[in-house]
Amino acid sequence: MRLFLALTPPTALRQRLGGLADRLHAELGGRRIPDDNLHLTLAFLGEQSDTSALKLRRWVQRYPCAPGRLTLDHVGYFHRPGIVWIGPSSPHDSLLKLQSDLSRQLTRWGLPHQPQQFRPHVSLLRSAMTQSAQPLSEDCFCWPYTSIQLIQSSISHEGSRYTTLATSR
């Protein structure tokens, strides 16, 4: 099964981010990512065996995630995949430490994962026309988080479907 570790925004924030995605989609085209799929990937694990998935599920359920806060105030563009995203212009140290700690543990277990260079972001559009990075002209999006999720990604002809397998305490 295809897995990743992520932060998932609360429903109200997902809806606000969805509104931003709608506005950007009208301007730039591409494929809009559904609100239910909006997340910030901490570690993409790729295909994992059932045994690894069970180990990861148990670990995530016991993981003591320190509360943190994200300020999403910068819209950017990854050229090669055509992804328009929103992220922090300056990530807080707590988020960088969280991602680094997770990455270290995964490396200890011998589980290959991405990213090698962490650029915190929430993807909003895929296959969009060129967009240069820019600050938001509206209020920024504040996101307090208290947990991480282990998520399974299932791909079908209808697109990706994400299922949360475990949430930290």
Concise overview:
With 169 residues, the protein is of the alpha+beta class. It has three helices and eleven strands.
Assign an overall shape. globular
Number of strands: 11
The average pLDDT score comes to 92
Tell me the strand percentage band. Answer: 35-45%
Encode the helix/strand succession as letters: EHEEHEEEHEEEEE
Helical content stands at 25-40%
Rg from Cα: 16 Å
Question: Biggest sheet, in brief?
Answer: 5 strands, antiparallel
Low-confidence stretches: none
Which strand order spans the largest sheet, edge to edge or round the barrel?
Answer: 2-7-6-5-8
Structural class: alpha+beta
Topology:
Elements: E1 2-7, H1 11-28, E2 31-32, E3 40-47, H2 50-62, E4 68-72, E5 74-78, E6 83-87, H3 93-108, E7 122-126, E8 134-135, E9 141-145, E10 149-156, E11 159-167
Antiparallel strand pairs: 1-3, 1-10, 2-7, 4-9, 5-6, 5-8, 6-7, 10-11
Characterize the structure shown.
With 169 residues, the protein is α+β, with helices and mostly antiparallel strands. The chain has three helices and eleven strands; from the N terminus they run βαββαβββαβββββ. The chain has helices at 11-28, 50-62, 93-108, and strands at 2-7, 31-32, 40-47, 68-72, 74-78, 83-87, 122-126, 134-135, 141-145, 149-156, 159-167. It has a five-stranded antiparallel beta sheet, with helices on one face. The protein has a four-stranded antiparallel beta sheet with strand order 3-1-10-11. The protein has a two-stranded antiparallel ribbon with strand order 4-9. A hairpin with a 4-residue loop joins strand 5 (74-78) and strand 6 (83-87). It is globular.
